[in-house]
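Changelog-adjacent note: as of this version, every example in the card shows the full chain rather than a window. The one below runs 165 residues end to end.
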Amino acid sequence: MSPFTIRPSASDEVEAMLRMKNLAWRQTYTGQLSDAAFDRLDAELPAQAAHWQDSIRQGAQPPLVATDARGDIVGVAAGGPARGDNPPAEVELYMVYVLAEAHGTGLGQQLVSGAIGAAPAFVWVLESNARAIAFYRKLASPQMEPLNPCQTSGITSASCAWSGQ
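Full-length structure tokens:
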């Protein structure tokens, strides 16, 4: 039995969910990204929250949150129809973030499964994030397919696609 509760986020906790996401970025990318990049994330939080709240009001699936026994948000995931031109799969994992305290518990896999099911999907991941790449390779069946790198805000990322399990 998992020590976490996974459920759709409530509209009044979108900002808390995004603060948790930003903390996960700091835990993961300190030393890889500049303080200015983290400051931009924090500055963009109100706009991101408004975007998610508007999307949910318009009928979009709310992101999933995982809470611990105290009720604190320790993970988040969202997925849905692929965005952009010529996506490598019809489903995109928009985000999955888990705080360091929950790494290795299986929570990330549970969140991905809840967000996108077993559909063939793709995700954008920073090239330098070896832990995330290993995580997606573990999900891959039979093999994750690396796609073209791109530059976004001076950060090199690459898309990875996998087949559903």
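Structural remarks: The first helix runs from residue 14 to 29.
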